[in-house]
Amino acid sequence: MSERLVDAYDLVIFDLDGVVYLIDRPIEGAVEAVGELHRAGVPLAYATNNASRRSAEVADLLNGLGVPADPGEVVTSAGASAAVLAQRLPPGSKVLVVGAEALRAEVRDAGLEPVARAEDRPDAVVQGYGPQVGWADLAEAAVAIRGGAQWVATNTDRTLPSPRGPLPGNGSLVAALRTALGREPDLVVGKPEPGLFATAALRVGAHRPLVVGDRLDTDIEGAVRAGMDSLLVLTGVSGPVDLLSAPVERRPTYVAPDLSGLFEVAGAATVPPDEVEGWRLEDGAGPRLVGDGTAIDALRLLCGLAWMGGDATRVAPDSPAARDALHALGLA
Asked: In the record, which residues are listed under signal peptide (predicted)?
């Protein structure tokens, strides 16, 4: 039996939104893929920038979707941010929380006192995504930070995926404060910082983890910073055009349409590839895509062109199959 991509790794670290589920709906094939990994005895972890749920809540959500998960397998930016603050501040210090109740609970469990107003004179402000966060919350945070409070952001994701398309994420709310204050947060805890991935690997003693994500700017860059291989799946935020224009620090080891890529023959999902079955690029008046094959294999081939400085967005089709592949990739 040929070795599968996943067989080369001793831990698979999943992002959640856009990889396993969209808000609260499982992505097609995700339940089956995770089930196959469990049956094969592959250690799993889940690392999410979403600070609106605690680890136990995330595990409950996954189990409710048919994805077996234990709270110990889940690393959230909310829990990591609270842990960082507990290291930086004396026990009982006041922290102004901008975000969901899950973030407040994590701060409380870390031995700190969550508050909601600048007049409480907090030592720090921690800012995470929460669907009810509004202008009044941002105003209190702005006053507290100008008064000397440390400013910690759980993450700076500009958007979060949903069945209706990308919606404003915590990074958009951080940007509002950044504009008002004229400065950056003192610390960003979540991806693309490598801490969540390093924590997940440390928990199980993994030496060769694989990160699976849907975002180049968080999941893939975070994996690169952590020195880990990564698989980009095209079920969430980043798409083919984004991948073609990705800078070096945001380039994945592999790309696949979805989690089925974990079970491809080793090397079949590598990007850029050594060779691609069915496709080739020829140059005349300009680059042309020649042959017949899958759209994802065409994308992998085009990444080789783009990452060497070529303009893969101007590749012309040389056959109906090539035209269909470019159209599927949004490059027609």
From this structure: none
